[in-house]
Amino acid sequence: MTSVEHFVPDAEADTSPRVVAAYIEAYTDVNDLIVDPFCRSPICVTTAVAAGRRAVAVNFSPLDALRTRLALVPVPTRDLDAAATRISDSPKFDMPLRRHLLRLYRTACRSCGNEVIADYFVWERGRDVPSQVSYRCAACGDAGLRDCVEADVQVLKDIDPRGLHYWYVLDRAARQDDEPRRFAAELLELYTPRSLYVLYNLVLKAEDLFAGSTIHDFLRLALLRCLELGSVLNPAPGDTELAETA
Ligand SMILES: [Zn+2]
Measured in angstroms, how far is the CA atom of residue 215 from the centroid of ligand 1? Predict the structure, then answer.
């Protein structure tokens, strides 16, 4: 086995690629093997490969591993845009999926009464209905946070909190009678029924259209970001006391 020749100091996630590149140039030659045993960002691997070195990266987190792997196979932005368009144009009931999902966020402009799609709703912790809605009306220009009205609550009744989407997600997270199922169920409580329904539809459609492709891996990463933003742990903009759900 070849001995380890040099260590790069602790590579924090935001280590400058130029610092990593300087170490690689100083201590290795083309085709040398560079090992990142605690790979928390793709910087070391991508910089090494760009410099003509080989690289091995290890991380226990499948998310970090996926992120690093995808950093090595960049996909043109237009391909990702095309994939997103294909998902949004795919049919759901009698309309495109995008329209079906956006309609779940409809509200009425408080100024002119026109239907608008909300940017987000604000939920106070412990309450099972939203308290405020943020929107921008294209017709009259009214914009900002407004108190929710009864119609905003009625829209939520289109979604059964324990509908097919709920059991589908729970079954995929943990099988029946598994101890982890209890934890998975608690995890799902981080999402309002509307957020969970939307995420379920996007995940399913991405799998349906792109499973097994690199594009699907990119979409999975994008959906992970959506999971973060859609969680009740995500605070409303400028407010740490309220929880927001998109
Ligand atoms: Zn308006």
Answer: 38
